[in-house]
Amino acid sequence: MDISEDTFIVNLGIHVRQIREKKGLSQQDLADDCGITQNQVGRIERAEINTTVKTLVRIANALDVEPKELLDFPLK
Amino acid sequence: MDISEDTFIVNLGIHVRQIREKKGLSQQDLADDCGITQNQVGRIERAEINTTVKTLVRIANALDVEPKELLDFPLK
Fold this sequence. Notes:
The structure is a homodimer.
Chain A: H1 5-22, H2 27-34, H3 38-45, H4 53-63, H5 67-70
Helix pairs in contact in A: 2-3, 2-4
């Protein structure tokens, strides 16, 4: 069954937020580590933007996980 | 160790091409299934563009894999 793009980025945002909070990082901490703005982190977590693969890699590096782990969540 | 964004998208392109060829699809077939152009498929496979998460989801749907599988390759 095809996955909805919109649903996927909503779940991605929730998953990024969960990993960030588990690591004890604020949105500002993550933003600083990625070289993006705190506003952009918030918009990714709220699925307001369709981010790129390179930004995913920066987020993964900052969260100390592999990029594929950012996409590893139950598909609803 | 941090992953290079550029190296990552090169490996992603190679991985997408491998899955596409394994499924016996041409670039044009994949493009048609994703609603993108054949040129865009070629540019993703050659890492000439930094694609978005939504496009990854469309490619995953067309290749009948989960999005996380597109990012699942050895990191060199």
